[in-house]
Amino acid sequence: xxxxxxxxxxxxxxxxxxxxxxxxxxxxxxxxxxxxxxxxxxxxxxxxxxxxxxxxxxxxxxxxxxxxxxx
Length: 71
What we know:
Blueprint: H1 2-22, H2 24-57
Helix pairs in contact: 1-2
């Protein structure tokens, strides 16, 4: 497992080099799309986190209905 992890950067470099030789424009478009997707996903996760914090933080746990609380 360690050997495979150690060889990963070299394998990625080979793949990027081959992609750049085959279709440089497509490589840059794909890289930009992946960065955009990552930023969009990060913003979405932050928004969901804030919404959940607002929803769950709106009412303290002690004021919830006692249906499921231990007796």
